[in-house]
Design a protein that fits this description.
alpha+beta; four-stranded antiparallel beta sheet; 18 helices; 9% strand; disordered C terminus
Length: 462
C-alpha cells in the first residue's frame, strides 16, 4: 500500500504490480501531488519509505511539464504517421483533416520538428489537390515559422523549403534545397540522429531512408530540368542500395517510376512499360493505392503512344472512377491532359474547315492551302460520316452542295472525278489502295471505321 501525505492530507492507493513497478508509479504520482500541494511528500510502501523534499516546487513542475511535452510530442508524431498512411490508401480528405489538426497542435505546443514535417506534408496534399491558394497559404506559414525560429535548421526545414519551391514551379530552387537537406542529414550529431530514427516517435526507419528519399527528389528535379543522364546515374546507384530491402520498398517504387519516365522520354516504350510494371507491383504489395494510380496513368500514356487507343481509354476510365473528389485535383488534371492527347492521337483524319487545316495520321498536316473546292468536298463527306451514314454521299448531292449546280453526268462526272483524285493524292499514303476516301456505287464516302475530328465553325456564318 502507498500513502501520500502533504499539508495534512493523505491519499491511499493499492498497487497490484511488482514492488519495483509500484515504487516507480508511486514516485510519479508523488511528483504530481507535490506540485499540487507545494510541500513535503512522504511515500510509504510495504518494503521501504521514500522521502522527497521539494525545496523548489517549480523544479518539480518543470519536470512534470517535460514529461507531458514528451507525451504530447508522441501523440503528434502518431497523428502525422496516421495522416501519411491514410494518404497512401487514397483517403486524402481524412489525411488532410488530421494533418491540419496536427499543424495547429504542433504550433500551440512549439514542437518545431513535427510542425515542419506536418507543414511539408500539408503542402504536398495541397499540391495533389491542385489548390494554388492553399499552396501559397502553407508556404506563408512555413516562412512565418522560419522567421520565429531562425536558429532551427533541421533537415526537415530544408525539405520543407524544397517542397515550397517545387510547388511554385521553381525547380532549380527546389534542387538546391534538396541538396541542403542532404547536407543537413550528413551533419546531424549522434544525439539528433538517435532522436530522429531510434525513438518510438520516428516516422523514418533510418537515416538511409531519408538519404534515399532526398537523392530520389534530386534525380526527379534533374529529369525535369532536362538532365536525363545525371538523373539516370543517381537512380541506378540508389536502386543498388534499396533493392530487396522491404522497409525501403516504397522508395524503390518511386525510383522505378522515375526510370519509367526517363525511358518514356527517350522513346523506349517497352522499357518504360516494364519499369512502370515493376513500380506497380511494389505499390500493390504495400497497398499504396495513391501511387498505384500514378503507375496506371503511366500505362495509359504508353498504350496511347503504342497506338493502342482502346486500351488507353480503359486505363483512363479506371482512373476517372477512382479520383472523383476535389482532393485529387492534380491527378484529375493529369488525366484530363492525357485524355486530350489520346483524343488527338487517336484521330485518323482532322478537318478544320474554318482554318483550312487538314491532318492525317501518316502526315501531320496536309498542304491543302486555299483549295476551297477540296475543303468543301471534305466538309460534305465529314458531315455524312458524322451522321453515321453507311451509304455515303451521292454524286448529285456533292455537285449540289459544293458547286451549287444541278447534277448532270455529262457535265459533272469528269470534274468530280478529277477533284476526288486530287483529294486522294493529298490524303492517301497509297493512292492505289485508298483507306480514307472510298468509292461508293452512287458516289463517295469516308471509310466507316475512320475516327474523324470535324470542326466546322463556319456553320454559324451561313
Amino acid at each position: 500500500m502507498g500513502r501520500f501525505g502533504s499539508a495534512g492530507q493523505r491519499l491511499k492507493c493499492k498497487f497490484m504490480a511488482s514492488p519495483v513497478d509500484s515504487l516507480g508509479l508511486i514516485s510519479n504520482i508523488a511528483v504530481l501531488f507535490a506540485v499540487a500541494q507545494g510541500g513535503k511528500v512522504t511515500v510509504r510502501t510495504e518494503s521501504s519509505v521514500l522521502h522527497s523534499e521539494f525545496v523548489a516546487p517549480m523544479q518539480a513542475e518543470a519536470s512534470v511539464r517535460l514529461e507531458l511535452e514528451r507525451v504530447h510530442e508522441k501523440e503528434l508524431w502518431s497523428d502525422l504517421r496516421l495522416a501519411r498512411l491514410l494518404a497512401e490508401k487514397c483517403e486524402l480528405g481524412e489525411s488532410t483533416r488530421i494533418t491540419d489538426r496536427t499543424i495547429v497542435r504542433a504550433r500551440e505546443r512549439g514542437v518545431l520538428e513535427v510542425l515542419f514535417e506536418a507543414l511539408c506534408f500539408r503542402l504536398q496534399l495541397a499540391g495533389e489537390a491542385s489548390d494554388a491558394n492553399k499552396v501559397k497559404e502553407v508556404a506563408r506559414q512555413i516562412d512565418n515559422v522560419r522567421a520565429l525560429a531562425p536558429e532551427f535548421e533541421s533537415p526537415s526545414a530544408w525539405y520543407c523549403r524544397a517542397a515550397v519551391n517545387y510547388a511554385m514551379e521553381n525547380v532549380e530552387g527546389a534542387l538546391d534545397c534538396f541538396r541542403r537537406y542532404l547536407k543537413g542529414l550528413r551533419q546531424m550529431d549522434e544525439r539528433a540522429r538517435a532522436r530522429r530514427y531510434e525513438t518510438e516517435n520516428a516516422i523514418y526507419h533510418s537515416k538511409l531512408e531519408e538519404v534515399v528519399r532526398g537523392w530520389s527528389m534530386v534525380a526527379s528535379m534533374k529529369m525535369y530540368l532536362g538532365r536525363p543522364l545525371a538523373a539516370s546515374r543517381i537512380v541506378r546507384r540508389l536502386l543498388a542500395v534499396v533493392s530487396g530491402k522491404r522497409e525501403l520498398s516504397a522508395l524503390e517504387g518511386g525510383l522505378r517510376m522515375i526510370q519509367g519516365q526517363l525511358a518514356e522520354r527517350r522513346g523506349d516504350l517497352d522499357r518504360a512499360f516494364e519499369h512502370f510494371g515493376e513500380a506497380h507491383r511494389i505499390y500493390l504489395a504495400r497497398h499504396h493505392w495513391y501511387y498505384h494510380l500514378k503507375a496506371v496513368l503511366g500505362y495509359a500514356r504508353i498504350a496511347r503512344k503504342r497506338e493502342r487507343f482502346s486500351e488507353a481509354r480503359w486505363y483512363l476510365e479506371l482512373l476517372e472512377d477512382a479520383t472523383g473528389g476535389p482532393e485529387f485535383g492534380a491527378m484529375q488534371k493529369d488525366i484530363e491532359k492525357e485524355r486530350r492527347s489520346l483524343d488527338e492521337g487517336a484521330v485518323d483524319l482532322w478537318v478544320d474547315v474554318e482554318r483550312g487545316v487538314v491532318r492525317t495520321r501518316e502526315s501531320r498536316e496536309v498542304p491543302i492551302g486555299k483549295q476551297f473546292v477540296l475543303l468543301n468536298l471534305l466538309d460534305v463527306l465529314c458531315e455524312a460520316h458524322g451522321k453515321g451514314n453507311p451509304t455515303g454521299v451521292t454524286k448529285s448531292e456533292i455537285i449540289q452542295r459544293v458547286w451549287r449546280e444541278s447534277y448532270s453526268a455529262n457535265a459533272h462526272d469528269n470534274k468530280l472525278y478529277y477533284n476526288i483524285n486530287r483529294l486522294r493524292r493529298l490524303l492517301e499514303p497509297d493512292v492505289g489502295k485508298p483507306k480514307y476516301l472510298l468509292n461508293w456505287k452512287e458516289g463517295y464516302r469516308l471509310a466507316p471505321d475512320l475516327n474523324v475530328r470535324w470542326i466546322r465553325t463556319r456553320e454559324a456564318k451561313k
